[in-house]
Amino acid sequence: MQQALTLSERLIAVLGARLGLRFFRRRDMLETLDAPAHGHEAPPGLLEAARGAGPDLLARLCTTRDGLSDDEAATVRAHVGPNEVEHEKPLPWWRHLINCYRNPFNLLLTALAAVSYATDDTEGTIIIASMVIISTVLRFVQEARSNKAAEKLKAMVSTTASVLRRGPLTQGVAEPENVRRLGRMGREIALADLVPGDIVLLAAGDMIPADVRILTAKDLFVSQSALTGEALPVEKFAHPCESGGSNPLAYDNLAFMGTNVVSGSATAVVVATGGRTFFGSLAQRVSAQQPSVTSFQQGVNRVSWVLIRFMLVMTPIVLLINGFTKHDWLEASLFALSVAVGLTPEMLPMIVTATLAKGAVVLSRKKVIVKRLDAIQNFGAMDVLCTDKTGTLTQDKICLERHTDVWGNFSEDVLEYAYLNSFYQTGLKNLLDVAVLDHAELHQRLDVVNRYRKIDEIPFDFQRRRMSVVVSENGDHHELICKGAVEEVMAVCNRVQHGANVEPLTPDVLAQLRRVTAHLNAEGLRVVAVATRHLPPVRERYSIADESELILVGYIAFLDPPKESTAPALKALASAGVDVKVLTGDNDLVTAKVCREVGLPVTACVLGDDIEAMSDTELAGIVERANVFAKLTPAHKERLVRMLRANGHVVGFMGDGINDAPALRAADIGISVDTAVDIAKEAADLILLEKSLMVLEQGVVEGRRTFANMLKYIKMTASSNFGNVFSVLIASAFLPFLPMLPLQLLTQNLLYDLSQTTIPFDHVDAEQLTKPQQWNPSDLSRFMVFFGPISSIFDVLTFVAMWHLFGANSAEHQTLFQSGWFVEGLLSQTLIVHLIRTRRLPFIQSRAAWPLLLMTGAVMLIGIMLPMSPFAETFKMQALPLAYFPMLAAILLAYAVLTQWMKGVFARRFGWQ
């Protein structure tokens, strides 16, 4: 604490002339903020902030309604640190190294190394330890590289907060007239740069960036489900709150880090940041808890335990057979120990990590940022993509195409009303508002500065699907201007503007108006209705109840042309086995026209109201048949996604709005864009830097490539391990000596493991990328039993050849036998890498990537040369006769031919993934 205050005092000396005595007052505030919260207690100062008056709180935080200056914020940040929760920081390198070591395979190998050491098997101990070290170091390096890459990727997806800062941007610079009228100029800064005392501006879709006290609020509803589990949003107010006890969640003028704004707008002052927030205090208590295991992790764990159980069953059998037949239980124990090591897929964690990390980096080059590595597998498995329309199928460059009266005739008055509404609203500004405000000439023509004054606004929400502002024209009356979805605006109108006259909105007139809007929709235009109401200037506050008895004055119609890339992207997704379904809140006629223009045949179009009336059984059938769903609420989107998942699909959802957040969380893989609202980016697993289905199709293919490479290693390991044990059992039952010494078997395993370390960089055949790939561990046993014994056939042929052709038929000649099987076993194991990696003919129709070719080639060369090298005596081997090598070539060729033929049999019966 003293050191931080000394730093503050130094800053005072430098900046005192400019900032005056405010920093001396700030010392008391810094002392208050110094201690973090503990247990279930509220963070220091939070309850006091809720109970006190706004001006008193601002004074205590040494800030103003206009916020802090950059220099003041920097001083506070130097003391309290960045606005980050501590558990989000990366682990120190030594903790990371321990985590890389701590997996079932390494722990098992360590136990085996200890047993080997206890039995004075020095060479075996060294080799097993080498396996553990190589596996741990490779995983550590790969994860360190992926973490470093992830940090760079996170910098590309920034979540910011809108704050008021007194500084160069607001001092001495002429502000735009609308900003001065509203009294605010927000600046976007990184969340980590927030400090207590900052004034933040909140609107629908924003994440609450820290613990804040509300200063002003307009129909502000905040979702606190992340903290409380409550499904419904809670309304927040700006008044001081005395009741609430010691539970900060009970105070309706506080909002907390990790929650999000559902609707409305507000200004608030930051009270606590980082670990001192309520969320931060919770995180400190639960940081030791392990995160939930994903389906991908469950699949990897199931595969791991299949192999471990296989090892636990087979190792004792090998021990007993060799013990009873060779009568040397110590040697039999060491051999069984080596078999156990050989059956341990110690490289699996490293292969999985390296493959996912490489996939994430490759996806980043394709403008896809992976927030969670395990999501890559779901990306490859996705067979249904639910997407919105605007900005995905269309260009996301909306232009105002028409402004008409209720009968479809050109009307300048309607455009003026719409301009005033968009200009004065401070909530969630969408592309429609931007298109209206592009008509800047109206600003001068309407003389907005002198004629109009904003009184109040009724913010947009997704239940009403409309918003209103109240303005005073020349101070003589108040005018409520409402714009929004046609049906929702018509529902609160009882009259229509017809030229200079106002007429009742009768059922016949309503039917005529709907024909007009349907005609506009059929032209592909998105129609927004505009209505007004004159009110006496007797009050300053308005609510949703005032949106009644309105006069419908006309429509503004927007055009969002389809993207040129959408049609080929949809075709590519279809060829990749991904069914695209459009989920939109927009009009069904507009959506259908856009779908036709981009080449997406509309099998059926279902409206939100229809979904509301359906049972789950009915909807389960509809979601399979229909591919366009229009006029949806957020709840409808979430329900559709859950129903598709219940039907057995792996569902991706692509969205960027606050209304998409529930569906993003419900999907197997949530996909958003960098320009999305904060809550959408928070809920997503993947972030696209470019909102394009073509980018998404490329990402799907890369996800499948990543998954295919992981599957290769598991197939190779399972089949090779099973074949080796089968061969060991046969040899142990009939040979008067061990078929291979423990040291030789361990060396063979080490070299084989090294040959597979470059699998993450391998190519994948095109046909493996054409359909979704799902994790199915139950297929592993079938594959293992089908291909494992093939290698045993040729191992037995090698045994026979060494026994009869080369005279290795006694204990005196066992070194020759063991050397011969060592070379054949290692080469056949390494060859299986190339045979299993593809359904095609290896080396000819499908060639491995050069890193895999080089690594496997180097391992095979080492295996051939080792018996003839100066190290042969160390490994108890001897040089093989020249006649051995033609026999070896014949055996390997026959092995490759039989395996290739069996691949065809297996693929025809069970398929090839």
From TrEMBL:
Name of the protein in question: Magnesium-transporting ATPase, P-type 1
Where in or outside the cell is it found? Cell inner membrane
Q: What is its main location?
A: membrane
Per the record, what are the reactions this protein catalyses? Mg(2+)(out) + ATP + H2O = Mg(2+)(in) + ADP + phosphate + H(+)
Q: Where does the Cation-transporting P-type ATPase N-terminal domain lie?
A: 48-121
Briefly, what is this protein's role? Mediates magnesium influx to the cytosol.
Species this protein is from: Pandoraea oxalativorans
Alphabetized NCBIfam families for the sequence: ATPase-IIIB_Mg, ATPase_P-type, PRK15122.1
A GO molecular function term, named singly, is: P-type magnesium transporter activity
The text of the family note is: Belongs to the cation transport ATPase (P-type) (TC 3.A.3) family. Type IIIB subfamily.
What topology does the record note for this protein and the membrane?
Multi-pass membrane protein
